[in-house]
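Q: I'm writing up a methods section and want to include an example of the input and output format. Could you take the sequence below and give the corresponding predicted structure tokens, formatted cleanly so I can copy it straight into the document?
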Amino acid sequence: MESLLDIAIIIVSVALVATIVLQSKQAGLGGIGGAEMTTSFSTRRGLEKTLFRATIVLSVVFFMLAVYTVYVSG
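A: Here is the clean output for your methods example:
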């Protein structure tokens, strides 16, 4: 049972990292050095909105799995 939970946490964490990385659209190396620090706000549409919601769902699932794993192993 614990090994299944460990595998589930690994899968969810990889998916969570992937959705976070796919969301970063303007994070380039130029932003690190301070080049062109413009900020633009827009509404999320299409794939961006889907990735945003998937990130929220995956983070909640990851948190619940982590808490449940601690509960089961303790």
